[in-house]
């Protein structure tokens, strides 16, 4: 069977690897002209790492991952430690250690594992159609390709999603929803003045967050959340000025973090949007995957993991069902749509709590952190992992 995958991100490449290892002919197209991932890094919780292990990449992913042994919350204004605890229980309960990884490193690993010769960059799909069991993808340059199946992993503004949901024929279009905050992120060298090298360190106050997580090669992934309206003007030349303004007077470690950022090297500014959960992921021989199907705010760190779960479920569905391509894809949709939608809603709920949209709720959360042993936070992390399809019904031990 020939499969076209639209999108060479985490979801598209992992799906391509899974399908190719089942013996299918797979080709990937992406509109980007070179490998420039959006965002500096991502959280690979145990469910996401397990999918990569299943793809045969356990050693490589472990080498890319940071040693995130502890988690700590600190008061953003004073720098006082509110709580600090080990993340070992997450590993013990789920059977896999989580890793923060640099997005570019993981994406390049996946692209190279799939095969760079079969990833065609600079190819913008403009339309998809199906006739007599053949799916046709049409590209902006006028070229076409045909296959037995097409998987759209083409992101939050997915052309494939418009086809699957009927929006391409004039039906209702699924629109994104602003989450209420802007995220700044990037990579810097690890520095003890900012936080321990084996710890996810987060400063909180005023509904804002400033955090660092360790990734490979002696680096920190940093990110800041700033609640604000969407559409505010920002130029690359503004650099870190918005951070200096938003976090003025914060703790010394936060000031050290801001001082360490070189905007010319690594600083991204991203308004955070998501998509209301929906359950139409398949039309005939065409299916969607990743952000196309469940664009999620990063508040529970499950965006990339959810895309990897899609790839796992798709691979299992293709390997085990033989009635038809259409039947296989409906079974993939059945496995994934409800759980992925639940994670979108959990991320929204978490974002509401952390960003002071309800000031009393956020103040209560801050108070709950003081002196916490971390057990409640770990329950939340594991709760996002336990129902993953990769666990095959054994969520925790």
What is the CATH-assigned architecture? 3-Layer(bba) Sandwich
Radius of gyration: 21 Å
Which sequence of strands runs across the widest sheet? 5-4-13-14-15-12-16
Stated plainly, the CATH topology is called FAD/NAD(P)-binding domain
Write down the oligomeric state: single chain
Give the number of DSSP strands: 18
Q: Structural class, from helix and strand content?
A: alpha/beta
Instruction: Write down the overall mean pLDDT.
Output: 96
- β-strand amount: 25-35%
Number of helices: 13
Low-confidence stretches: none
CATH superfamily: FAD/NAD(P)-binding domain
Give the helices and strands, then pairings:
Layout: E1 2-6, H1 10-21, E2 25-29, E3 41-44, H2 46-54, H3 58-64, E4 70-75, E5 81-86, H4 88-94, E6 99-102, H5 103-114, E7 119-120, E8 125-131, E9 134-139, E10 144-147, E11 149-152, H6 159-165, E12 176-189, E13 199-205, E14 208-215, E15 219-227, H7 241-246, H8 252-260, E16 268-275, E17 282-283, E18 286-288, H9 291-294, H10 303-320, H11 325-354, H12 359-369, H13 375-385
Parallel strand pairs: 1-2, 1-11, 2-7, 4-13, 11-18
Antiparallel strand pairs: 3-6, 4-5, 8-9, 9-10, 12-15, 12-16, 13-14, 14-15, 17-18
InterPro entries: FAD-bd, FAD-dep_Monooxygenase_BioMet, FAD/NAD-bd_sf, HpxO
Family: Belongs to the FAD-dependent urate hydroxylase family.
Domain FAD-binding: 2-347
């Amino acid at each position: 069977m020939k499969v076209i995958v639209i999108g060479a991100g985490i979801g598209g490449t992992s799906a391509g690897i899974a399908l190719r290892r089942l013996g299918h002919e797979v080709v990937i197209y992406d509109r980007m002209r070179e490998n420039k991932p959006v965002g500096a890094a991502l959280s690979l919780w145990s469910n996401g790492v397990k999918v990569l292990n299943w793809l045969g990449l356990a050693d490589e992913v472990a080498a890319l991952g940071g040693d995130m042994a502890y988690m700590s919350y600190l008061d953003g204004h004073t720098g006082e430690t509110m709580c600090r605890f080990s993340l070992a229980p997450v590993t013990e309960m789920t059977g896999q250690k989580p890793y923060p990884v640099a997005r570019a490193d993981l994406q390049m690993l996946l692209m190279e594992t799939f095969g760079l010769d079969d990833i065609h960059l600079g190819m913008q799909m403009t339309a998809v159609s199906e006739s007599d069991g053949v799916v046709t993808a049409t590209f902006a340059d006028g070229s076409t390709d045909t296959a037995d199946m097409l998987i759209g992993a083409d992101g939050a503004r997915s052309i494939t999603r418009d086809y699957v949901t009927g929006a391409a024929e004039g039906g209702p279009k699924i629109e994104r929803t602003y989450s209420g905050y802007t995220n700044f992120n990037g990579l810097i060298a690890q520095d003890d003045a900012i936080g321990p090298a084996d710890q996810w360190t987060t400063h909180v106050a005023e509904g804002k967050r400033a955090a660092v997580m360790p990734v490979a090669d002696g680096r920190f992934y940093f990110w800041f959340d700033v609640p604000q309206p969407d559409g505010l003007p920002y130029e690359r030349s503004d650099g870190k000025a918005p951070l200096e303004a938003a976090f003025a007077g914060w703790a010394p470690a936060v000031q050290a973090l801001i001082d360490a950022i070189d905007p010319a090297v690594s600083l991204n500014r991203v308004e955070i949007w998501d998509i209301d959960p929906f359950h139409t992921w398949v039309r005939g021989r065409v299916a969607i995957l990743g952000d196309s199907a469940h664009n999620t705010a990063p508040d529970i760190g499950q965006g990339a993991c959810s895309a990897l779960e899609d790839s796992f479920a798709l691979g299992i569905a293709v390997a085990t069902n033989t009635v038809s391509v259409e039947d296989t894809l409906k079974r993939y949709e059945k496995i994934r749509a409800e759980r992925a939608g639940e994670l979108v809603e959990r991320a929204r709920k978490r974002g509401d709590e952390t960003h002071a949209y309800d000031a009393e709720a956020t103040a209560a959360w801050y108070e709950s952190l003081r002196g916490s042993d971390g057990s409640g936070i770990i329950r939340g992390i594991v709760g996002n992992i336990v129902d993953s399809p990769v666990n095959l019904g054994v969520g925790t031990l």
